[in-house]
Design brief:
With 85 residues, the protein is α/β, with parallel strands linked by helices. The chain has one domain: Response regulator (Rossmann fold, 3-Layer(aba) Sandwich). The protein has three helices and three strands. A three-stranded parallel sheet has the order 1-2-3, sandwiched between helices. Strand 1, helix 1 and strand 2 form a beta-alpha-beta unit.
C-alpha cells in the first residue's frame, strides 16, 4: 500500500497536499504529517485537507513509525484517528 509521510508543514507542502487530495486518482493515498508545530490551528488546517494523522516531534524511538502504522490501519478501516501530541 502506498503512503506518504510529510515532514514539512510549509505553505507549499500544504498546497501540494490539497492538490493531491483533490485528485480522485491520488486522494485515497493516506498522508501522515510529521512536524514540530503543535498549535491546534496547525492541526486543524492539515486535517481539513485530508491528512489521516498529525504527529508532532520529538517522539521516542519507533514512535513515529508506530503512530504511522496506527493511522494507516485506522484509515484502512475508515475510522478517524485522533490527534495526539
Amino acid at each position: 500500500m502506498a503512503r506518504i509521510f510529510v515532514v514539512d508543514d510549509s505553505p507549499d507542502v500544504r498546497l501540494a497536499l490539497a492538490t493531491l487530495k483533490a485528485d480522485t486518482l491520488t486522494s485515497p493515498i493516506p498522508v501522515i504529517m510529521v512536524t514540530a508545530k503543535c498549535r491546534p490551528e496547525d492541526m486543524a488546517m492539515v486535517r481539513s485537507i485530508g491528512t489521516v494523522e498529525y504527529i508532532t516531534k520529538p517522539k521516542a524511538d519507533g514512535g513515529v513509525k508506530l503512530r504511522g502504522d496506527w493511522a494507516i490501519a485506522a484509515d484502512h478501516e475508515h475510522k478517524s484517528p485522533q490527534f495526539i501530541t
